[in-house]
Amino acid sequence: MSQCAEQVRKLAMDAGFEPPSTGVPGAASIQVAPHADAEALSAIGYNTFGVDARQAAATDADAFSAYELALYGLKGVGAYGTHALELNAESAELYSEVHRVLGELAIGPQDKDMGAGVQLAMDVGGANLTAMKLLDEGHNSRFGAPEPTQINLAPT
Fold this sequence. Notes:
Layout: H1 3-14, H2 38-49, H3 51-57, H4 61-86, H5 92-107, H6 114-143
């Protein structure tokens, strides 16, 4: 295990996280050649975790669609959260929820019904609201609360 990976593992263990007893599914368990180039890594990523691979692994097209909705929503959470972080607004609860959802997405919709996927998408929606709230707080603390202002609309 690399020194960086060992440090991350130690931080996780100190925070109370226990490694799963049956191994970690998905991206966390993938093995690649130590000197793989960017093109090879890209091909592994696409063939293992790309849309086509995820769709082929899904047993229910509706569940797959709901999980994809959650994935694309999570990208929005990332955008809002990153912007909020640039304004010094962040939340450990938001990070925790993002990690939980990423774990669910790594496992994927195999053997799950659409209800589980819709619930995951709804959870992402809640995380998105949290990220938007953080962004609003960051904007307000940096720039002040917005207020209606009269402006001159005449051409100059």
